[in-house]
Request: fold
Amino acid sequence: MSLRRTISDNLVLELPSQDTYAQLYDLINHYAERKEMLPKTYDELYQRTRDFRLLVDRSANEPQVLACSHLDIFTPTLAEVKSLAVRPEYQGQGYGKLMVEDCEEEARELGIERMFALTYQIDFFKRVGYEVIDIKTLPEKVFKECVICPFKDDCNETAVIKQLQ
Reply:
C-alpha cells in the first residue's frame, strides 16, 4: 500500500502516524471494551504500523480517524483482515467495506488467494462476499494466535473467508 491514497476531497487512506496513533488506539479499544475486538497497546500499534490502514478525514486542522483495518499475512496464499472498526457515528456509510476492499486489493497485489476474518459481524462480511467456515479449517490461525488468545476457551467469533484469485 502506498503511504497515502486520496479517496475524496477530504478522505484519505493512510498508514498510522504520530498525529493519528491516539485515535487509532481509542477506536480499537472502544470496541475492545465491549468485547467486540481484541485490545491493542500502543506498542502493538507501533510494531504493526505498516500493516494498519486508516481512513482519515483531513478537512479540519486536526485529522479525524473514521475507520481502521489491519492486513495480516499468514502464508504466501492466506491473509486475514483484522482490527476492522468504524467509528460508531460513521457506520452505514460504506467505510467498513472500503477498508476491507483496500486490504483485499493489497493482498491480491501480493498474490494472496484467500482472505479470512474472525468476526461478530457475520452479515457485513457476507455482504462483501465472504462465507462462513469452521475455524478448524484455518490451522495457520489456530496454531499461531488462537492458542494464545485470552478468549481461546470462550471464543464467540465466527470465521469467514473469501477467494481472491
Summary: The first strand starts at residue 4 and ends at 6.
